[in-house]
Specification:
233 residues; 1 helix; 8-stranded antiparallel β-barrel; Porin; mainly beta
Length: 233
């Protein structure tokens, strides 16, 4: 699944690059406004990293464990401030879902069990974007990186067995997570609209575990995002 995550990330960036010539031909306005506001939507694939990433799913009654990713939907808003032609500062406010999932066979041979952890955050990245062309160009490839802080909204641990499914609130998850975000994409500027397609990787730098043991478990997410905004100034 990690190979699939990287594949989606790479495919998003490649698709954006392939679309660039088409959008460039449709550009019909010398728009040099430097501030944009908009919304972002996308999908994500998340799992856990760290020395104790597998410990959260430890179960002596399971064998043939297979870790998979949790698919999530991302939505939120952003503002882009062009400060030096090819340099943007972009704060965002995003609702994201993270977590991890493990499947295993019951030792008694009665079936398969799926253990899932889901964490929902209000995430606030502050990104520095470096574009390869000035803001007045119709197509702007860019790279970006920056820190993020994330406030936990709710958490859930779910166990699915042949006998049924049960879920409980995960009480030992920290209320705040922080880390770094990096990625690449393409901006399409058309008649005042600020359109973007990007792939990004988000990596937590602190454990999400709030138990007495404070296990080394961190979030890791690959995502593809579409942005639609309006340049206003």
């Amino acid at each position: 699944m990690k190979r699939l995550s990287l594949g989606i990330f790479a495919a998003t960036v490649i698709l954006a690059l392939l679309c660039a010539p088409v959008w460039a031909q449709r550009y019909d306005d010398d728009d040099d406004r430097n501030i944009a506001f908009g919304i972002k939507v996308g999908i994500s694939l998340s799992d856990f990293t760290g020395d104790d990433a597998d410990a959260i799913f430890d179960n002596d009654e399971l064998t043939n464990l297979d870790e998979t990713t949790v698919v999530g939907f991302i939505h939120g808003a952003y503002a882009t401030f062009t400060v030096a032609g090819i340099l943007d500062i972009q704060p965002e406010v995003l609702f994201v879902k993270k977590g991890s999932e493990t499947q295993g066979d019951l030792l008694n041979g009665t079936g398969t069990t799926t253990n899932t952890v889901r964490l929902r955050y209000l995430e606030v990245p502050i990104l520095l974007k470096l574009a390869f062309l000035d803001v007045d160009q119709p197509v702007r490839p860019f790279i970006f990186a920056g820190p993020y802080g994330a406030f936990l909204l709710d958490s859930e641990a779910e166990v699915e067995t042949p006998l049924g499914t049960a879920s409980v609130e995960l009480e030992e998850a920290k209320d705040f997570d922080w880390g770094v975000t990096a990625g690449a994409g393409i901006n399409f500027i058309l008649a005042g609209l600020d359109l973007s397609l990007e792939g990004r990787w988000t990596m937590g730098l602190t454990t999400i575990d709030d138990s007495d043991e404070e296990l080394d478990i961190m979030n890791s997410t690959i995502s593809a995002l579409l942005g639609i905004g309006v340049r206003v100034f």
